[in-house]
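EI: anyone free to look at a 256-residue chain?
SC: sure, send it
EI:
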Amino acid sequence: MAERFADKTVAVTGAGSGIGRATALRLLREGARVIAIDRAHTSPWPEEVASQLTLVSADIADPATPALLEAAVSDTGGVLDILVNAAGILRIAPFVEVTVEDWNEVIAVNLTGTFFLSQTAARLMIAAGVPGRIVNVSSVHAAVSEPNAAPYTATKGGIEAMTRTIASELAPYGITANCVRPGATRTGMSDPLYDPDIVAALEERIPLREIAEPEWIAAAICYLASDEACYTTGASLDVDGGYAMNGALPGTIYRR
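SC: here you go
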C-alpha cells in the first residue's frame, strides 16, 4: 500500500480542503506526484508536504484551467496517470427561490469544470498511451433527494451520467472512469450546515451512526484510482454509512 502510486502523476481538484485535501495527502503518502488544484489554497500545507506538491491556484469553472493542468503535467514529467475531480460547491435555497446566478455558478464548477478537466486528462492519457484513471466525486444525493439543494443534486446526477458515458468511450484506451458517492461528510463546505439537530437526524438516519471524515472518502477514491480497480469502470461506489440503502422507519420497525 505504501507505494501503490509510485511513479504516478495525479491531479486532484478541490485539493485545498475537505475530501480533495485528504485525497491529495493520501496519494502523497502512497508515492504519487500530486498536482493540487484549488481556487484558493487558503489552509497552509505543512512545509514538508508543500515541497512535494505542484500547487495550481485556479477555479475549475474558468475555461483557462484545462490549459493550466496541461502545463502542470508538462512540468512534472509530461504524463498524467490519474485525475481526481473533488472540487464542488453547494448553494442552499428552496427550488422556487433558486436564482439564475446560483444555478449557473453551481453548474459551472461542479459539472462543466469536471467535464472539461476530464476531457483534457483523457486527451493527455490517450496521447501518452497511458491506461489512466478518472475518479469523480459525486454524492449520495445523486440518487436520494436533498431538499433546498436542487442545483447541487442536478450536478451530481449529471456527473454520474457523464462518467458512465465517458467510461464507455475511454474503455478502448484502457482508461477507466468511476465515481465515489459520499454521504454526509465533515468538510469546510458541509460543517456550517451541521447544527445539533442536523447531526442528531443524520446519526439516526445513517445505519453506521456516524458522519464521515474526509479520509474515509479518500480511501475509496484511492482504491478506484489504483490498479486494484483495473476491472471497474462506469461505477458509482457508495461510501455513505448505509444512508442510501436504508429503508428503515426512523424510531420504529414493522411488527407482527
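EI: The two ends are 49 Å apart (CA to CA).
SC: 👍
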